[in-house]
Amino acid sequence: MTNLWTRDFKIITIGTIISMLGNAVAGFAIGLLVLDYTGSTLLYALFMVVYNLPKIVAPLFAGPYMDRFSRKKVIYTMDFISSALYTFIFFLLYNHWWNFPFFLGLVLIIGTIDGVYAVAYESLYPNLVSKGNFSKAYSISSMIYPLAAFMVPVASFIYNSTGSAAPLFAFNAVTFLLAAIFETQIGYVETHLDNGTGEKFTRDRYIADFKEGLQYMAKEKGLLIITTYFCITTFASGGAQTVMLPFFKNNPELFAFVPLDVVTLYTIISFFGVFGRLMGGLIHYKFRYPVGKKFIIALTVYTTITLLEAFQLYFPLPLMVLSFFIIGIMGVTSFNIRISATQSYVPDEKRGRFNGSFQMICAAGGIVGQLLSGVLGEVMPERQIIMIFMALNLLAIIFIMYPGREHVKRIYNRRV
């Protein structure tokens, strides 16, 4: 096994940490803005849907380009653009200007940028990982968001203290600028590029590459099963997460015994989920799961998470906190097994198209789940909505993932 901490791996890890610090803060802030200005679960869900809507189209069409052109240039270009956009939002909020349709348009742009960035990042990242270190590398990757999410309680305090999200977006603009500067220093020579010696990348070549990417996924039954299941689990998770914060805001009497406002309480409880993800990442970095047991471990994780999410809002507060923590650990286990296996399995020259198709399909599932959850949130209690979504996820485990186990094992049960 070679050294994981190469120069390029250090650069992309530092750049990602910096940008995620700002992203975690801004994502939390804009959600609260919408709820505070509108007071509507449906409009809150609509905001989330509009943010994720471009992730259906952008990754799918970006994938063929990522298999022909520079992924690292796309990464730092998107971060420079994001920095400028968050600076603009800062000035709007600093001047106390708010317009729901206008901010909806800004969120649409942000979602498009994030959709393109994600395909470029996921396609480049495996090439910066030294041989035999995929599991360790993705363990580190899985710890970045939990580390960044430690900023959310700080963001909540600043938002409640100042009554404005402007300082949070200023912080976000600076972090994206610093991340972009770091990412320009990546020295990896991208071997998948057309350097003028190959076939010209015409419209017909693009269409052919696009079709080839879809055909590749359809031909690989294991990848198709994994993608189908994660589309459904993203649908269920999107639906459940959409009504989580509204549940706390709409049911303060359930937590009247706690000397905190419900938003702060929610951020503290969520922190234990984040802490669980951090612990899960550390476990994966230190220990390797038995190669031949990865699929059964993943299946157990999928089932346990589903059952806990279905009932955790009925638990007393200490058990609710414990549930969030366990789901955090298991969520990283699911992420690490799936992404390290698929990214090492898919050839580099097809990785952009696979990642684009995978993200498109999962984003579509998440958007439908968020929108449906927002509609149901107007007429049903939040806990019942979550149970419905988790029941559907359990059916996907039973009727999709388990019957396709032999195909999935060929991808999961490998040494990476």
Question: Would you kindly provide a brief summary of this structure?
Answer:
This is MFS transporter. The chain is mainly alpha-helical and 416 residues long. It has a single domain (7-186, 206-412), classed as MFS general substrate transporter like domains (Growth Hormone, Chain: A, Up-down Bundle), CATH 1.20.1250.20.
Question: What labels describe this entry?
Answer:
mainly alpha; Growth Hormone, Chain: A; 0% strand; transmembrane helix
Name the assembly state: single chain
CATH class: Mainly Alpha
CATH architecture name: Up-down Bundle
Gross geometry: globular
CATH topology: Growth Hormone, Chain: A
Intertermini distance: 10 Å
What value does the average pLDDT take?
87
How large is the share of residues in beta strands? Answer: under 5%
Low-confidence stretches: none
* Strand/helix succession: HHHHHHHHHHHHHHHHH
Task: Please tell me about this protein's structure.
Helix content is 79%, strand content 0%. Helix 4 packs antiparallel against helix 8 (166-183) and helix 10 packs antiparallel against helix 16. The model has no long low-confidence stretch (mean pLDDT 87). The protein is built from 17 helices and no strands. It has 416 residues and is an all-alpha fold. 49% of the residues are buried. It has one domain (7-186, 206-412): MFS general substrate transporter like domains (Growth Hormone, Chain: A). It is globular, with a radius of gyration of 21 Å.
